[in-house]
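Whether sequence alone determines local backbone shape is best considered at the level of individual chains. The sequence in question and its structure tokens are set out directly beneath this paragraph.

===
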Amino acid sequence: MVDIFDVIADGTRRDILQLLLDRSGAGERGTSVSQIVAELGASQPTVSKHLKVLREADLVSVREEGQHRYYSLSPAPLDTVDDWLMPFLVDETDASAAFAAAVPPLPDSAARTADAVGRAAASAKHALESALKKLPGR
């Protein structure tokens, strides 16, 4: 399996991803290798080598039309990077305040029910953890 962090560690690959992102935002249905070469000022073999790495990491998809290949960004694998980075970027107090501002308060009956469910879940978790500790070999 490809380590996404190794893939995006290379500056040329990040430049290619940025270019594909910019072009997709402009409504392009793909970008040819020759367009990438021209934009980045890199050699065609270098761009092709990096596109292969990006394809193997599922960060780009390719559409073939005759002899031409058109590349598009497939950002889903970057979710791993996003998940890893978020704790470093989000201050919990800011996140809590933003959440509180975005979510209206619950009616009293719903708040009481949510509290009861939370307490029951915590109690069940504690009981399960206690029972698991008593098992032989633990």
Residues 108-133 form the longest helix (26 residues). The chain has a mean pLDDT of 86.
